[in-house]
Amino acid sequence: xxxxxxxxxxxxxxxxxxxxxxxxxxxxxxxxxxxxxxxxxxxxxxxxxxxxxxxxxxxxxxxxxxxxxxxxxxxxxxxxxxxxxxxxxxxxxxxxxxxxxxxxxxxxxxxxxxxxxxxxxxxxxxxxxxxxxxxxxxxxxxxxxxxxxxxxxxxxxxxxxxxxxxxxxxx
Length: 171
Fold this sequence. Notes:
Elements: H1 2-21, H2 38-42, H3 50-68, H4 73-93, H5 111-134, H6 140-165
């Protein structure tokens, strides 16, 4: 149990550092803003207390907001994802599994279930984030385009992260 807690803390620190130092300065074509720190929320243990999950997500989002001089956009979107994660983790990740999944990853469940789970929650995150950032329904196409492209780039980064730093035996 202590190893699981330690791994989650290291994952949070590393992903938030990558987000703040590198990815917040990357805007591909003005539409894409990758959000890799969200993977830390998506990979929280499924049996974690729901209230603690919300607090952790809010703290992670607020940390990114503080380093980006934002007004709580990341915190709001990350908290919504943590709220939705509880429902989607049960319905998507643990649907066909006989044994409980401790940490959702591409190694713990099949690729398609994890990608569906991550894509859905990342799209919810990016859609709310860009809606708050742009805050105009006149630019709905820009919000949708930015959300879809950012979700796709974020999914690629999730897969690369897990292939590089997560081993089958850890999942």
